[in-house]
Every structure is written in structure tokens, then in C-alpha cells.
Write a structure and sequence with these properties.
Length: 495
């Protein structure tokens, strides 16, 4: 069950917001009465309430807005109990001075806005002695592994227990607490009404992560990286899971660079079945795996971890995505020359994507030439893979069948830039730009003008995710749906 938190400065506004929200049938609404700025009248808020409520009156030390005395605050809690509120949130240190009465359930809470203390079990034990109907323990995740310690409390609980972490690192526990047995989680009723750090919007918790349908059977996946908030993968995978009716949820999992191994080991207790891996963890993911694939080893980086029979496999789906995207681009070539094998490929760039492209093209029998603005990086890649290298300034003179841009030139916001000028292109080439923001880069526009075959970075992005989807779910990926989802999200992304 999701408890939707609401706070407003005026009684009338809070009552109105509660009525508006009730049209969407929330099961439980938390009224943050400490937000009310005028003289508080709890009975007025309880009268004709459209849904069951939790009455919460948070003091300043717990990041609440209550400005009266502690005595007055406790009087408010008693008034809420006498008024018959379904639940009243009572902090554990005052719980003994607020007696049980009537049918009102006691939600005994502990909040820590600094960290996740080491003595969680002692705190929990103390709380069980406060006559709770529900225990709520909310701490701040300083490290991702703190989520696991907090969620473990639910598993061993003797009383129905809500437990999760706040902060950006705590999101995973807010979403997975129900799967561990928590009777509820919290979400904000509106963007303006976030009550605690890292709190998700009700819409997202309900429709995007489908919190209420997450059960112990639901398979959990996520993308690990830092930063992670910009990632399109949660949208893409969650939408695709829903499209094919797969019982899975996919989470953005921020993991700082220094704690990958520790976190992945700790997250084993959350029974996570697979990860997409992004910067800066692609090398660490490879090291973590029990069974790295040939491709991941060749590239020296993994963008996918998945588990079978208790063993972690690492692979690199960029490799397959690059090959498939090029092959799709070659379908317009004359019959008999639609294979990568034997093609002259010029790769612009020497970063992570270039590495995957060099590897994928070379292993499929192409003759690869690399060029990069910083010559040393191109030479280093060349030394490793044994292809050819040319100076960046000479790139216009190189004859090729396939041109692959693996630089970031042309990426938003520098959309009028291109790493390869229009006159250098000729119609017999396939031009593949790995940049996908925007989909139609300046390079691809020029290539179309010159009559070249083209392949886009968005197609590559979709294909690497589609392969992950297949590994994660064991089902055929809905390719067109995934492409359309990406296009729509890029077209509505803020500038
Ligand atoms: P990276 O490791 O940081 O490499 C960036 C490359 O771009 C380097 O070769 C760099 O050259 C070159 N570069 C940057 N600015 C340049 C400029 N003004 N002129 C010439 N070269 C320049 O990044 P990456 O991870 O390989 O990603 C590269 C691009 O691939 C990204 O920008 C992104 O658009 C795209 N990408 C696509 C996908 C997909 O699925 N389609 C996935 C990931 C990334 P120096 O060595 O000289 O700095």
C-alpha cells in the first residue's frame, strides 16, 4: 500500500488537496498537520475525510515545520486519537506519553536525517516496547549498502514494520520495502509537496514502478552508475516489461565509484536479477562477474550483468548492438556486399564507444582504421587491436565503406556540429553516428543529403537495451515499441 503524503499551509487548502487526491483512490493519506501555519484544528481536518488518514505532526528536529511547543504538539496527537484518525504517527521517544485509545492505530516512528546507525536492532527493540501497531524506521543512506541493512529489519520484524532509507541513495529501499513485507511505503502527493529527501511522486511510484504489483515473485533489475538520474534505461525497460506483461521492475541505482563491489555484494540480499551498467562502473562490473563473456573481455568493459544459477555473467550488449545496427544499415547496399566482412571501416574517436566499435567491426572481419583528435589515444587503441591509425586532420582523405562516429561531436546542445564535413561524404558509404541526442544529427542529415545509407545512435541504444531485455526477461524484446518509447521521451525531454 502507498501512503500519499500531503501538506498545505492552510486548513482549507489541505482539505481541498485531500478531496482532489481522493478522486484517484489512494488507500491511505498522510496529513502533515505541522505544515498548517494558522492555529491547528485537527477535528476540522478529520471531519468528512474522504480517505483513511495518518496524522503526522513533525517537530523541527525531525525536519518538520511545527513551530508550537512540544506540549502543544503532543496535545495535537492526542486530539487526533480522540478524533478517531485511522493512524497517528508517534515518535518513539514520546510514544510512552501518548496512550492508546479507541481504534486509532499507533504508528511508532524513528527518523535519522544524518545516516543509518549501526545499532538499528537496539532501536528496533526499543520501539517494540512502545505499544506499536506499526513500526516505522527511516534513516539516511550514506552508502547504498545501508538500504540492505534497513530492509533486513523488515524480514526479521516481530511487528508490521515500515523501513526504508531517505536521500538519493535510498530510492531502492522506498520501492522494494513492500516486496520485503513492509505494510506501506510513502510517496509525495505533488512535486511541491516532497516531505522527505528522495521521496518519489505518487504517480511515479504507482504507475512507473507499479509498487502495488511488486511481489516476492517480481524480478528486480536496475541500472548502476553515477550520475544516474538522466538515464533513459528505467523508462525503456519498465515500459517494455509492461508492454509484454513481464513481472519485473527496473530501478535507477546510484552507486558511487568507490563502492561498486561492496554494493553489488550487499544487493545480493535484495535478490536482484540483473543490472545495466553505465559510467563509471563498466570495468568494475567486469571484475565483479563470475563469468565474463568473450565480447566483454575483448572490450575490457561490461554494460550488462545478469544472474543464472547463482552466478553473475558479464557481457557487453553494445557489441551486438553495433553489429546489428551496421547490418541493418547495409541492407540498402547492393546484393553481395551486405556483410561487414571485408568492409573498410573508419572510426572517429577513441573513447569507450569507439573501443566497442573497433572490436565489433574487427571481429566481424572488417578492416578498421581509427582516427581521434588526441592522437595518443588512437594509437593506444591501435596497439591493442592491431588495426590502422591516421591523423585526425587526414580523416577526409581516407576511403571507407562504413564511417562510424564515436566522438561526442554533434551531441546536444552542439547540434550544428559534425565531425566529418559534408563534401567528404560519398553516396557509396554507410554513415553511422553513435550520438543519439538528437536522433538526426548534423552528420546524419549531411549523409542523407549526399545519398548515403545511414544508421542512428538511437537504433544502437535501443538494440543494446533490447538485448539486455532479452537476457533479463527471457522474452523477445518489443523492438518497435522500445524505439517509439525512446523517440517520445527524447521529444519531450527538457532543453
Ligand atoms: P568518451 O570515452 O568520453 O570519448 C569521447 C570521444 O569524443 C573521444 O574520442 C574524444 O576525443 C572525442 N571528442 C570529444 N570532443 C571532441 C571534439 N570537439 N572534436 C573531436 N573529437 C572529440 O565517450 P564515449 O563513452 O566513447 O561516448 C562517445 C559518444 O558516443 C557519446 O557522446 C554519445 O553521444 C555516444 N554514445 C552512444 C551510445 C549509444 O548506445 N548509441 C552509448 C554511449 C555513448 P579525445 O580523445 O581527443 O578527447
Amino acid at each position: 500500500m502507498i501512503c500519499v503524503s500531503l501538506g498545505r499551509r492552510r486548513h482549507s487548502a489541505l482539505k481541498q488537496a485531500h478531496r482532489d487526491l481522493s478522486r484517484l483512490n489512494p488507500e491511505l493519506v498522510e496529513l502533515r498537520v505541522d505544515w498548517i501555519m494558522s492555529r491547528l484544528n485537527v477535528a476540522r481536518l478529520l471531519k468528512k475525510r474522504p480517505t483513511p488518514v495518518v496524522i503526522t505532526c513533525r517537530r523541527e528536529q525531525d525536519k518538520g515545520r511545527w513551530s508550537g511547543t512540544e506540549e502543544q504538539r503532543q496535545a495535537v496527537l492526542r486530539e487526533a486519537i480522540i478524533g478517531g484518525a485511522e493512524y497517528v504517527d508517534i515518535e518513539e521517544d514520546i510514544a510512552r506519553s501518548i496512550p492508546r485509545y479507541g481504534d486509532t492505530k499507533r504508528l511508532v516512528s524513528y527518523h535519522n536525517f544524518e545516516d543509518t546507525p549501526t545499532d538499528l536492532s537496539d532501536i528496533y527493540q526499543r520501539m517494540t516496547e512502545c505499544d506499536p501497531d506499526i513500526i516505522k524506521i527511516v534513516t539516511t543512506a550514506s552508502r547504498p549498502a545501508d538500504n540492505v541493512r534497513v530492509l533486513e529489519l523488515i524480514k526479521s520484524a516481530t511487528v508490521p514494520t515500515v523501513a526504508f532509507c531517505m536521500g538519493e541513495l535510498g530510492m531502492v529501499s522506498r520501492i522494494l520495502c513492500g516486496r520485503m513485507g513492509s505494510p506501506l511505503t510513502y510517496a509525495a502527493g505533488s512535486r511541491a509537496g516532497e516531505m522527505a529527501p528522495g521521496q518519489l511522486l505518487w504517480d511515479d511510484m504507482r504507475d512507473f514502478y507499479r509498487y502495488d504489483s511488486i511481489s516476492s515473485d517480481t524480478k528486480v533489475f536496475g541500472v548502476i552508475g553515477d550520475p544516474i538520474s538522466h538515464s533513459l534505461s528505467p523508462l525503456l525497460h519498465n515500459s517494455a516489461f509492461r508492454e509484454v506483461d513481464f513481472d519485473g521492475v527496473y530501478l535507477p541505482l546510484k552507486i558511487p565509484a568507490d563502492s561498486v563491489q561492496e554494493t553489488l555484494q550487499a544487493y545480493d540480499k535484495l535478490d536482484i536479477s540483473g543490472y545495466s551498467v553505465t559510467i563509471p562502473h563498466k570495468h568494475a562490473a567486469l571484475e565483479f562477474a563470475d563469468l565474463p563473456s568473450v565480447q566483454a573481455n575483448l572490450i575490457g568493459a561490461s554494460n550488462t550483468l545478469f544472474r543464472t544459477d547463482g552466478k553473475w555473467h558479464a557481457t557487453n550488449t553494445d557489441y551486438d548492438a553495433i553489429v546489428k545496427t551496421v547490418e541493418a544499415g547495409l541492407t540498402t547496399f547492393p546484393e553481395g556486399s551486405r556483410e561487414v566482412k571485408g568492409k573498410q571501416v573508419l572510426i572517429l574517436g577513441a573513447g569507450g564507444v569507439a573501443r566497442a566499435a573497433v572490436c565489433a567491426m574487427q571481429k566481424n572481419g572488417a578492416a578498421v582504421t581509427i582516427t581521434n583528435r588526441t592522437a595518443d589515444r588512437a594509437r593506444a587503441l591501435n596497439d591493442e587491436f592491431g588495426c590502422s591509425v591516421i591523423d585526425w586532420e587526414q580523416r577526409s582523405e581516407e576511403m571507407c565503406d562504413i564511417l562510424i562516429n564515436c566522438t561526442s561531436v554533434g551531441m546536444h546542445p552542439n547540434v550544428s556540429e559534425s565531425p566529418f564535413d559534408l563534401p567528404w561524404l560519398n553516396e557509396s558509404m554507410l554513415v553511422f553516428d553513435t550520438v543519439y541526442t538528437p536522433e538526426n544529427t548534423q552528420l546524419l542529415e549531411h549523409a542523407k543529403t549526399r545519398g548515403c545509407a545511414t544508421a542512428s545512435g538511437l537504433e544502437m541504444f535501443m538494440r543494446q537495451a533490447a538485448r539486455q531485455f532479452e537476457l533479463f526477461s527471457g522474452q523477445q524484446p518489443p523492438l518497435e515499441f522500445m524505439m517509439e518509447t525512446l523517440r517520445q521521451s527524447l521529444s519531450t525531454a527538457p532543453e
